[in-house]
Amino acid sequence: MTGAGQPQPRAGAPRRLIGLVALLLFLGMVILLQWRIAPLSPGRFLPQAAFTGYSTADLWAFAQGVGQDPNAVSLYTSLLGWVDPAFIVLFSLWVALTLRPRMLGIVAAVVFALLDMSENIGLLYTLMSFRWDYIFLEFKDMPVPVVSGDMTFLSLLTSAKLTLATLLVAVIAVQAIAGRKAKT
């Protein structure tokens, strides 16, 4: 119990810390992807950042470009398999704690997490099937998918994830601004 004159802990401090850590993870991934992965990909294409979607041919070109450097493959798969899931958990938690009404925040956070994790699993599976199996030998017997110019279901997940994340951040920003104006 705090006495008179003692500073009260801020109710939003944990939420802000979670948001800050999620933001730092996101920025770290962006920097690594732009610095180490994008230069190896034709047109600096990064599937998880393609708002307008992509085809299996785009993924094939990405896999061939990045696949030339085993260290880049290892970095990319580590980012998708470890760092991005940590970001997904923290971002989703921040959304659930910040977006009002609370039930909307929880539902939006769960939907975002499912979209983003499904996209990561799909990207990793697809890229492994494009014969990145010299890094991951347990995938060596996977069938090679058909490469076409058609948009993939995976690209729909990417577009939905990016659209939802953008909307969530925008709505939370508007709610924060409106909350500050209401206090003044």
TrEMBL record:
Membrane-spanning ranges: 17-37, 79-99, 106-132, 152-178
This protein's name: Uncharacterized protein
Domain of life of the native organism: Bacteria
UniProt entry keywords in alphabetical sequence: Membrane, Transmembrane, Transmembrane helix
